[in-house]
Amino acid sequence: MSRSLPETRDYSVLAIAVNAVIAIAVTAVVVWWASGFAYNAEALFRVGPTVEGGGIGADWRAGNTIPALDFLIAFVHAADVLMGIFILVMVFVHWGAFRRLASRMRQPGEPARYDSDADAVADGGRPSDGANVAGGANASADNTARDPGGDDR
Amino acid sequence: MTNLDHGKFTRMTTTFHTLLALDVFILFFSGYGLMFNDELWWLVTLMGGSTGVTAVHRIAGLGLVVLIVFWMLMMITTSTGRGNFRQILIGPDDVAAAIQDFKFVLGMADERHPNARQFAGYKSDEVPLLSYIGKGVVYIFSIELTLLTISGLLIWSKTGVMQYFATKTAAMAFVVFHGLLGVIMLMGVMFHIFEHGFHPAFYPVEVKAFIPRKLIPEEHADTDHDSTGISQLSLAPSWGWATNVMGVLTVIGIVSVLVGSIFDEGYPVPRELAVGGGPTDLLLTVGINVGILVLFIGMALQMYGNLMRVRWQRQLEEEARAPAATDGGRPNDD
Fold it and tell me: Which of A78, B6, B113, B125 would bridge with B100, disulfide CB 3.0–4.6 Å?
Protein backbone atom coordinates (compact mmCIF):
# COMPACT_ATOMS: atom_id res chain seq x y z
CA MET A 1 0.00 0.00 0.00
CA SER A 2 2.92 2.28 0.61
CA ARG A 3 4.53 1.55 -2.75
CA SER A 4 3.46 4.76 -4.37
CA LEU A 5 3.27 7.64 -1.99
CA PRO A 6 0.78 10.31 -2.95
CA GLU A 7 3.09 12.99 -1.70
CA THR A 8 5.08 13.29 -4.90
CA ARG A 9 5.33 17.05 -4.71
CA ASP A 10 5.23 19.66 -2.04
CA TYR A 11 2.25 21.83 -1.33
CA SER A 12 2.13 24.92 -3.52
CA VAL A 13 3.16 28.20 -1.94
CA LEU A 14 -0.07 29.76 -3.17
CA ALA A 15 -2.22 27.16 -1.41
CA ILE A 16 -0.26 27.64 1.81
CA ALA A 17 -0.50 31.44 1.65
CA VAL A 18 -4.21 31.59 0.80
CA ASN A 19 -5.17 28.99 3.38
CA ALA A 20 -3.07 30.68 6.05
CA VAL A 21 -4.80 34.01 5.44
CA ILE A 22 -8.24 32.35 5.52
CA ALA A 23 -7.32 30.51 8.73
CA ILE A 24 -6.26 33.71 10.45
CA ALA A 25 -9.41 35.49 9.27
CA VAL A 26 -11.65 32.66 10.49
CA THR A 27 -9.88 32.68 13.84
CA ALA A 28 -10.35 36.41 14.20
CA VAL A 29 -14.09 36.01 13.62
CA VAL A 30 -14.28 33.06 16.03
CA VAL A 31 -12.55 35.02 18.77
CA TRP A 32 -14.71 38.01 18.17
CA TRP A 33 -17.72 35.71 18.55
CA ALA A 34 -16.25 34.19 21.70
CA SER A 35 -15.87 37.68 23.09
CA GLY A 36 -19.53 38.32 22.49
CA PHE A 37 -18.80 40.62 19.54
CA ALA A 38 -17.51 43.13 22.03
CA TYR A 39 -14.44 45.28 21.75
CA ASN A 40 -13.70 44.93 25.41
CA ALA A 41 -14.66 41.55 26.82
CA GLU A 42 -13.09 41.91 30.23
CA ALA A 43 -16.42 42.75 31.79
CA LEU A 44 -17.52 39.14 31.32
CA PHE A 45 -16.84 36.31 33.77
CA ARG A 46 -13.31 35.12 33.84
CA VAL A 47 -12.03 31.84 35.17
CA GLY A 48 -9.53 32.80 37.83
CA PRO A 49 -9.23 29.95 40.30
CA THR A 50 -6.13 31.21 42.04
CA VAL A 51 -7.47 34.69 42.62
CA GLU A 52 -7.94 35.19 46.33
CA GLY A 53 -11.60 34.87 47.16
CA GLY A 54 -12.60 35.59 43.60
CA GLY A 55 -12.91 34.18 40.16
CA ILE A 56 -15.70 32.25 38.62
CA GLY A 57 -16.66 29.20 40.57
CA ALA A 58 -15.41 30.45 43.90
CA ASP A 59 -18.99 30.77 45.05
CA TRP A 60 -20.07 27.47 43.58
CA ARG A 61 -21.54 25.33 46.31
CA ALA A 62 -24.12 23.14 44.68
CA GLY A 63 -22.09 20.89 42.43
CA ASN A 64 -23.10 19.96 38.95
CA THR A 65 -26.83 19.92 38.64
CA ILE A 66 -27.16 19.50 34.91
CA PRO A 67 -27.51 15.79 34.09
CA ALA A 68 -26.10 16.08 30.57
CA LEU A 69 -22.94 17.83 31.73
CA ASP A 70 -22.62 15.52 34.70
CA PHE A 71 -22.77 12.57 32.34
CA LEU A 72 -20.17 14.13 30.04
CA ILE A 73 -17.77 14.56 32.93
CA ALA A 74 -18.32 11.00 34.15
CA PHE A 75 -17.85 9.83 30.56
CA VAL A 76 -14.54 11.64 30.18
CA HIS A 77 -13.38 10.25 33.53
CA ALA A 78 -14.00 6.77 32.17
CA ALA A 79 -12.31 7.68 28.89
CA ASP A 80 -9.30 8.98 30.80
CA VAL A 81 -8.88 5.70 32.62
CA LEU A 82 -9.42 3.48 29.58
CA MET A 83 -7.20 5.53 27.30
CA GLY A 84 -4.59 5.85 30.04
CA ILE A 85 -4.36 2.10 30.44
CA PHE A 86 -4.24 1.65 26.65
CA ILE A 87 -1.44 4.23 26.33
CA LEU A 88 0.50 2.60 29.15
CA VAL A 89 0.24 -0.76 27.38
CA MET A 90 1.53 0.91 24.21
CA VAL A 91 4.45 2.42 26.12
CA PHE A 92 5.42 -1.02 27.43
CA VAL A 93 4.98 -2.71 24.04
CA HIS A 94 7.23 -0.14 22.37
CA TRP A 95 9.73 -0.19 25.19
CA GLY A 96 10.01 -3.94 24.72
CA ALA A 97 10.12 -3.74 20.94
CA PHE A 98 12.86 -1.12 21.11
CA ARG A 99 14.93 -3.38 23.36
CA ARG A 100 14.61 -6.24 20.89
CA LEU A 101 15.59 -3.98 17.99
CA ALA A 102 18.50 -2.57 19.99
CA SER A 103 19.82 -6.05 20.61
CA ARG A 104 20.16 -6.53 16.86
CA MET A 105 22.18 -3.40 16.36
CA ARG A 106 25.92 -3.14 16.67
CA GLN A 107 26.60 -2.65 20.34
CA PRO A 108 28.71 0.29 21.48
CA GLY A 109 32.36 -0.53 20.86
CA GLU A 110 31.55 -3.47 18.64
CA PRO A 111 33.54 -3.31 15.39
CA ALA A 112 31.92 -2.92 11.99
CA ARG A 113 30.66 -6.08 10.37
CA TYR A 114 31.14 -4.89 6.83
CA ASP A 115 34.39 -3.40 5.65
CA SER A 116 32.62 -1.25 3.09
CA ASP A 117 30.55 0.47 5.77
CA ALA A 118 32.43 3.73 5.84
CA ASP A 119 29.89 5.52 8.04
CA ALA A 120 30.32 2.98 10.77
CA VAL A 121 34.07 3.34 10.81
CA ALA A 122 33.83 7.06 11.33
CA ASP A 123 32.13 6.77 14.69
CA GLY A 124 35.02 5.07 16.40
CA GLY A 125 34.66 1.51 15.13
CA ARG A 126 37.94 -0.15 14.22
CA PRO A 127 37.19 -2.56 11.39
CA SER A 128 40.72 -3.80 10.93
CA ASP A 129 41.80 -4.64 14.45
CA GLY A 130 42.00 -8.02 16.09
CA ALA A 131 38.45 -8.00 17.40
CA ASN A 132 37.13 -8.88 13.97
CA VAL A 133 36.57 -12.49 15.01
CA ALA A 134 33.60 -11.57 17.15
CA GLY A 135 32.30 -9.20 14.52
CA GLY A 136 32.56 -11.87 11.88
CA ALA A 137 30.69 -14.34 14.02
CA ASN A 138 27.89 -11.85 14.52
CA ALA A 139 27.76 -11.06 10.84
CA SER A 140 27.32 -14.67 9.88
CA ALA A 141 24.71 -15.20 12.54
CA ASP A 142 22.85 -12.12 11.44
CA ASN A 143 20.85 -13.61 8.62
CA THR A 144 20.11 -16.94 10.20
CA ALA A 145 19.45 -16.41 13.90
CA ARG A 146 18.95 -12.71 14.00
CA ASP A 147 17.94 -12.34 17.60
CA PRO A 148 20.15 -14.52 19.74
CA GLY A 149 18.31 -14.05 23.00
CA GLY A 150 19.33 -10.46 23.27
CA ASP A 151 16.01 -9.32 24.71
CA ASP A 152 17.09 -9.62 28.28
CA ARG A 153 20.21 -7.62 27.82
CA MET B 1 23.72 4.39 6.08
CA THR B 2 22.78 7.23 8.34
CA ASN B 3 20.06 7.24 10.91
CA LEU B 4 18.48 10.11 9.02
CA ASP B 5 17.25 7.63 6.47
CA HIS B 6 14.30 8.69 4.38
CA GLY B 7 12.00 11.64 4.66
CA LYS B 8 8.26 11.15 4.46
CA PHE B 9 6.78 14.57 5.05
CA THR B 10 6.83 17.78 3.04
CA ARG B 11 8.35 21.01 4.28
CA MET B 12 4.88 22.34 5.03
CA THR B 13 4.06 19.29 7.15
CA THR B 14 7.31 19.43 9.10
CA THR B 15 6.91 23.15 9.76
CA PHE B 16 3.29 22.60 10.78
CA HIS B 17 4.33 19.82 13.15
CA THR B 18 6.81 22.12 14.86
CA LEU B 19 4.32 24.97 15.24
CA LEU B 20 1.60 22.62 16.49
CA ALA B 21 3.99 21.00 18.97
CA LEU B 22 5.12 24.33 20.40
CA ASP B 23 1.56 25.58 20.63
CA VAL B 24 0.29 22.42 22.31
CA PHE B 25 3.18 22.42 24.78
CA ILE B 26 2.33 25.99 25.77
CA LEU B 27 -1.33 25.00 26.11
CA PHE B 28 -0.35 22.08 28.35
CA PHE B 29 1.94 24.16 30.54
CA SER B 30 -0.65 26.89 31.04
CA GLY B 31 -3.73 24.63 31.13
CA TYR B 32 -2.33 22.09 33.55
CA GLY B 33 -0.74 24.84 35.58
CA LEU B 34 -4.38 25.74 36.21
CA MET B 35 -5.90 22.27 36.53
CA PHE B 36 -3.16 20.90 38.76
CA ASN B 37 -2.46 24.25 40.39
CA ASP B 38 -1.85 22.52 43.74
CA GLU B 39 0.95 20.47 42.25
CA LEU B 40 2.24 22.91 39.63
CA TRP B 41 2.08 26.15 41.56
CA TRP B 42 5.51 27.08 40.20
CA LEU B 43 4.27 26.94 36.61
CA VAL B 44 1.48 29.38 37.44
CA THR B 45 3.95 31.70 39.15
CA LEU B 46 6.34 31.38 36.24
CA MET B 47 3.65 32.48 33.78
CA GLY B 48 2.69 35.52 35.76
CA GLY B 49 0.10 34.27 38.21
CA SER B 50 -3.54 33.57 37.42
CA THR B 51 -3.91 36.51 35.06
CA GLY B 52 -0.78 35.67 33.12
CA VAL B 53 -1.45 31.98 32.84
CA THR B 54 -5.01 32.42 31.53
CA ALA B 55 -3.75 35.00 29.04
CA VAL B 56 -1.03 32.64 27.83
CA HIS B 57 -3.59 29.85 27.53
CA ARG B 58 -5.95 32.01 25.47
CA ILE B 59 -3.26 33.31 23.14
CA ALA B 60 -1.97 29.78 22.54
CA GLY B 61 -5.59 28.71 22.03
CA LEU B 62 -5.94 31.28 19.28
CA GLY B 63 -2.80 29.89 17.67
CA LEU B 64 -4.34 26.43 17.81
CA VAL B 65 -7.52 27.58 16.07
CA VAL B 66 -5.44 29.14 13.29
CA LEU B 67 -3.41 25.94 12.89
CA ILE B 68 -6.45 23.66 12.88
CA VAL B 69 -8.38 25.73 10.34
CA PHE B 70 -5.27 25.99 8.17
CA TRP B 71 -4.65 22.24 8.27
CA MET B 72 -8.26 21.38 7.45
CA LEU B 73 -8.17 23.76 4.48
CA MET B 74 -4.91 22.23 3.24
CA MET B 75 -6.36 18.70 3.48
CA ILE B 76 -9.44 19.73 1.53
CA THR B 77 -8.13 22.15 -1.07
CA THR B 78 -4.91 20.48 -2.25
CA SER B 79 -4.51 17.19 -4.06
CA THR B 80 -1.49 16.31 -1.90
CA GLY B 81 -3.61 16.89 1.18
CA ARG B 82 -6.43 14.71 -0.11
CA GLY B 83 -3.93 12.01 -1.03
CA ASN B 84 -2.40 12.08 2.44
CA PHE B 85 -5.83 11.96 4.01
CA ARG B 86 -6.51 8.67 2.21
CA GLN B 87 -3.24 7.32 3.63
CA ILE B 88 -4.31 7.67 7.23
CA LEU B 89 -7.51 5.65 6.94
CA ILE B 90 -7.25 2.68 9.28
CA GLY B 91 -7.41 -0.78 7.73
CA PRO B 92 -7.18 -4.42 8.84
CA ASP B 93 -3.40 -4.24 8.36
CA ASP B 94 -3.17 -1.77 11.21
CA VAL B 95 -4.97 -4.10 13.60
CA ALA B 96 -2.65 -6.90 12.48
CA ALA B 97 0.32 -4.62 13.10
CA ALA B 98 -0.79 -3.93 16.67
CA ILE B 99 -1.20 -7.65 17.35
CA GLN B 100 2.16 -8.43 15.77
CA ASP B 101 3.84 -5.82 17.96
CA PHE B 102 2.66 -7.74 21.04
CA LYS B 103 4.02 -10.93 19.52
CA PHE B 104 7.30 -9.25 18.63
CA VAL B 105 7.85 -8.16 22.22
CA LEU B 106 7.06 -11.67 23.44
CA GLY B 107 9.46 -13.20 20.93
CA MET B 108 6.70 -14.86 18.91
CA ALA B 109 7.43 -12.84 15.76
CA ASP B 110 10.77 -12.09 14.12
CA GLU B 111 9.88 -8.75 12.60
CA ARG B 112 7.62 -5.84 13.26
CA HIS B 113 4.67 -5.65 10.87
CA PRO B 114 5.15 -3.30 7.89
CA ASN B 115 2.46 -1.02 9.33
CA ALA B 116 4.41 -0.72 12.58
CA ARG B 117 7.73 0.14 11.02
CA GLN B 118 9.60 3.28 11.60
CA PHE B 119 12.74 3.64 9.54
CA ALA B 120 15.73 1.82 10.91
CA GLY B 121 17.45 0.35 7.97
CA TYR B 122 14.23 -0.20 6.04
CA LYS B 123 14.02 1.16 2.53
CA SER B 124 11.66 4.01 1.83
CA ASP B 125 9.04 1.87 0.10
CA GLU B 126 9.08 -0.65 2.94
CA VAL B 127 7.86 1.91 5.43
CA PRO B 128 4.35 3.40 5.40
CA LEU B 129 3.75 7.13 5.50
CA LEU B 130 2.42 6.61 9.01
CA SER B 131 2.73 3.54 11.23
CA TYR B 132 -0.40 2.24 12.93
CA ILE B 133 0.68 4.26 15.97
CA GLY B 134 1.14 7.31 13.77
CA LYS B 135 -2.38 6.89 12.43
CA GLY B 136 -3.73 6.45 15.94
CA VAL B 137 -1.93 9.60 17.02
CA VAL B 138 -3.48 11.55 14.15
CA TYR B 139 -6.98 10.26 14.97
CA ILE B 140 -6.79 10.70 18.71
CA PHE B 141 -5.12 14.11 18.54
CA SER B 142 -7.54 15.33 15.86
CA ILE B 143 -10.63 14.32 17.82
CA GLU B 144 -9.13 15.66 21.04
CA LEU B 145 -8.05 18.96 19.55
CA THR B 146 -11.45 19.49 17.96
CA LEU B 147 -13.32 18.81 21.20
CA LEU B 148 -10.83 20.84 23.23
CA THR B 149 -11.12 23.78 20.86
CA ILE B 150 -14.92 23.73 20.88
CA SER B 151 -15.16 23.39 24.65
CA GLY B 152 -12.38 25.93 25.12
CA LEU B 153 -14.17 28.49 22.96
CA LEU B 154 -17.41 27.85 24.85
CA ILE B 155 -15.59 28.46 28.12
CA TRP B 156 -14.11 31.62 26.68
CA SER B 157 -17.51 32.72 25.49
CA LYS B 158 -19.42 32.83 28.74
CA THR B 159 -22.43 34.18 26.94
CA GLY B 160 -22.25 31.19 24.63
CA VAL B 161 -22.49 28.75 27.51
CA MET B 162 -25.14 30.81 29.27
CA GLN B 163 -27.24 30.76 26.15
CA TYR B 164 -27.57 27.01 26.44
CA PHE B 165 -27.49 26.35 30.17
CA ALA B 166 -27.92 29.68 31.84
CA THR B 167 -25.95 28.97 35.00
CA LYS B 168 -22.46 29.52 36.30
CA THR B 169 -22.46 25.83 37.14
CA ALA B 170 -22.65 25.04 33.46
CA ALA B 171 -19.62 27.19 32.80
CA MET B 172 -17.76 25.37 35.57
CA ALA B 173 -18.78 21.99 34.20
CA PHE B 174 -17.38 22.95 30.83
CA VAL B 175 -14.08 23.87 32.45
CA VAL B 176 -13.98 20.48 34.16
CA PHE B 177 -14.90 18.69 30.95
CA HIS B 178 -12.23 20.59 29.01
CA GLY B 179 -9.52 19.84 31.57
CA LEU B 180 -10.34 16.15 31.89
CA LEU B 181 -10.50 15.75 28.12
CA GLY B 182 -7.03 17.21 27.76
CA VAL B 183 -5.61 14.56 30.08
CA ILE B 184 -6.04 11.95 27.35
CA MET B 185 -4.00 14.10 25.00
CA LEU B 186 -1.44 14.83 27.70
CA MET B 187 -0.87 11.10 28.18
CA GLY B 188 -0.77 10.55 24.44
CA VAL B 189 1.87 13.24 23.94
CA MET B 190 4.06 11.66 26.62
CA PHE B 191 3.90 8.37 24.73
CA HIS B 192 4.53 10.18 21.44
CA ILE B 193 7.71 11.71 22.91
CA PHE B 194 8.90 8.31 24.13
CA GLU B 195 8.09 6.55 20.87
CA HIS B 196 9.85 8.98 18.56
CA GLY B 197 12.72 9.93 20.82
CA PHE B 198 13.85 6.54 22.06
CA HIS B 199 13.74 4.15 19.12
CA PRO B 200 17.27 2.70 19.26
CA ALA B 201 17.97 3.59 15.64
CA PHE B 202 16.80 7.19 15.96
CA TYR B 203 17.77 8.07 19.50
CA PRO B 204 17.74 10.87 20.60
CA VAL B 205 15.07 11.95 18.12
CA GLU B 206 13.51 10.60 14.94
CA VAL B 207 14.04 13.38 12.43
CA LYS B 208 11.38 12.22 9.97
CA ALA B 209 9.09 14.93 11.27
CA PHE B 210 11.73 17.65 11.07
CA ILE B 211 13.65 17.13 7.84
CA PRO B 212 11.39 17.41 4.80
CA ARG B 213 11.33 14.65 2.27
CA LYS B 214 12.95 16.61 -0.51
CA LEU B 215 16.10 17.10 1.53
CA ILE B 216 16.58 13.35 2.05
CA PRO B 217 17.81 11.06 -0.71
CA GLU B 218 15.45 8.25 -1.60
CA GLU B 219 18.20 5.75 -2.34
CA HIS B 220 21.34 4.72 -0.56
CA ALA B 221 24.39 3.24 -2.23
CA ASP B 222 24.37 0.24 0.07
CA THR B 223 20.80 -0.96 -0.28
CA ASP B 224 21.78 -4.27 -1.81
CA HIS B 225 21.91 -6.13 1.47
CA ASP B 226 19.30 -8.79 2.16
CA SER B 227 18.46 -7.90 5.73
CA THR B 228 16.66 -4.79 6.87
CA GLY B 229 20.01 -3.20 7.61
CA ILE B 230 19.35 -2.52 11.27
CA SER B 231 22.30 -4.74 12.19
CA GLN B 232 24.57 -2.23 10.46
CA LEU B 233 23.45 0.62 12.69
CA SER B 234 25.40 1.11 15.87
CA LEU B 235 23.65 1.59 19.17
CA ALA B 236 24.45 4.79 21.05
CA PRO B 237 26.29 4.05 24.31
CA SER B 238 23.78 6.08 26.32
CA TRP B 239 20.69 4.52 24.75
CA GLY B 240 20.19 1.83 27.36
CA TRP B 241 20.08 3.90 30.50
CA ALA B 242 18.53 6.94 28.80
CA THR B 243 15.64 4.86 27.49
CA ASN B 244 15.09 3.17 30.84
CA VAL B 245 15.08 6.49 32.67
CA MET B 246 12.75 8.08 30.11
CA GLY B 247 10.49 5.02 30.11
CA VAL B 248 10.16 5.17 33.88
CA LEU B 249 9.51 8.94 33.79
CA THR B 250 6.90 8.49 31.05
CA VAL B 251 5.07 5.78 32.97
CA ILE B 252 5.17 7.80 36.22
CA GLY B 253 3.97 10.89 34.36
CA ILE B 254 1.07 9.09 32.68
CA VAL B 255 -0.03 7.31 35.85
CA SER B 256 0.20 10.53 37.88
CA VAL B 257 -1.86 12.75 35.60
CA LEU B 258 -4.36 9.90 35.28
CA VAL B 259 -4.65 9.54 39.05
CA GLY B 260 -4.57 13.31 39.45
CA SER B 261 -7.46 13.74 37.03
CA ILE B 262 -9.57 11.26 39.01
CA PHE B 263 -8.49 12.58 42.38
CA ASP B 264 -9.01 16.22 41.53
CA GLU B 265 -12.37 15.51 39.92
CA GLY B 266 -11.29 18.08 37.41
CA TYR B 267 -10.42 21.66 37.89
CA PRO B 268 -10.93 23.60 40.02
CA VAL B 269 -14.02 22.56 41.89
CA PRO B 270 -14.83 18.88 42.46
CA ARG B 271 -18.25 17.49 41.88
CA GLU B 272 -18.68 17.06 45.59
CA LEU B 273 -17.96 20.00 47.76
CA ALA B 274 -14.28 20.52 48.56
CA VAL B 275 -13.52 23.88 47.12
CA GLY B 276 -9.93 24.83 46.59
CA GLY B 277 -8.33 22.27 48.85
CA GLY B 278 -7.23 19.72 46.29
CA PRO B 279 -5.08 16.80 47.30
CA THR B 280 -1.67 17.90 48.38
CA ASP B 281 -0.38 14.38 48.22
CA LEU B 282 3.40 14.50 48.03
CA LEU B 283 3.63 11.47 45.76
CA LEU B 284 1.08 12.88 43.35
CA THR B 285 2.82 16.24 43.36
CA VAL B 286 6.12 14.60 42.46
CA GLY B 287 4.47 12.41 39.84
CA ILE B 288 2.65 15.23 38.08
CA ASN B 289 5.83 17.27 38.05
CA VAL B 290 7.58 14.28 36.48
CA GLY B 291 4.89 14.35 33.79
CA ILE B 292 5.66 18.02 33.14
CA LEU B 293 9.36 17.14 33.03
CA VAL B 294 8.59 14.60 30.28
CA LEU B 295 6.89 17.40 28.34
CA PHE B 296 9.92 19.64 28.80
CA ILE B 297 12.16 16.86 27.49
CA GLY B 298 9.79 16.51 24.55
CA MET B 299 10.03 20.21 23.83
CA ALA B 300 13.82 20.04 24.01
CA LEU B 301 13.88 17.07 21.62
CA GLN B 302 11.54 18.93 19.32
CA MET B 303 13.98 21.84 19.19
CA TYR B 304 16.86 19.42 18.72
CA GLY B 305 15.06 17.94 15.70
CA ASN B 306 14.91 21.38 14.15
CA LEU B 307 18.56 21.96 14.96
CA MET B 308 19.33 18.72 13.10
CA ARG B 309 17.44 20.05 10.09
CA VAL B 310 19.42 23.29 10.10
CA ARG B 311 22.70 21.41 10.32
CA TRP B 312 21.63 18.95 7.64
CA GLN B 313 20.63 21.76 5.30
CA ARG B 314 23.96 23.49 5.87
CA GLN B 315 25.81 20.28 5.11
CA LEU B 316 23.84 19.80 1.89
CA GLU B 317 24.61 23.38 0.86
CA GLU B 318 28.31 22.88 1.53
CA GLU B 319 28.33 19.67 -0.48
CA ALA B 320 26.59 21.41 -3.35
CA ARG B 321 29.05 24.27 -3.23
CA ALA B 322 32.17 22.15 -2.92
CA PRO B 323 32.85 21.22 -6.60
CA ALA B 324 32.71 24.85 -7.71
CA ALA B 325 34.78 26.15 -4.85
CA THR B 326 37.73 23.83 -5.21
CA ASP B 327 39.90 24.05 -8.28
CA GLY B 328 40.76 20.56 -9.36
CA GLY B 329 39.41 18.80 -6.31
CA ARG B 330 37.30 15.83 -7.24
CA PRO B 331 34.80 15.34 -4.41
CA ASN B 332 33.37 12.16 -5.88
CA ASP B 333 36.60 10.44 -6.78
CA ASP B 334 36.44 7.88 -4.01
Answer: B113
Q: Could you say which of A49, A91, A102 has the minimum Cβ distance to residue B250?
A: A91
pLDDT tens-digit profile of A123-149?
A: 444 444 444 444 444 443 344 334 444
* B309 SS3 class: helix
Q: Are B20 and B67 in contact (CB under 8 A)?
A: yes
The predicted-structure confidence for B157-181, as pLDDT tens digits, reads as follows 766 666 666 666 677 778 888 888 9
ipTM of the predicted structure? 0.83
| Portion 65-124 of A in contact with B at CB < 8 A | 65-66, 69-70, 72-73, 76-77, 79-81, 83-84, 87-88, 90-102, 104-110, 113-114, 116-117, 119-120, 123
Residues B8 and B298: their CA atoms lie apart, in Å, by 21
Partner B contacted by A130 (CB < 8 A): no
| Average pLDDT in chain B | 81
* Residues of chain A found within 8 Å of residue B158, distances taken between Cβ atoms: 36, 44-45
Specify whether the CB–CB gap between B38 and B285 falls below 8 A: yes
Contact A23 B247 (CB under 8 A): no
- Interchain CB distance below 8 Å, B239 and A102: yes
Question: Which region, left, alpha or beta, applies to residue B281 given φ > 0 means left and ψ of -120 to 50 means alpha?
Answer: beta
A83/B309 Cα distance (integer angstroms) = 33
Alpha helix positions (H), B158-216: 158-165, 168-197
Q: Which residues of B28-39 are buried (b: 16+ CB within 10 A; e: fewer)?
A: bbbbbbbbbbbb
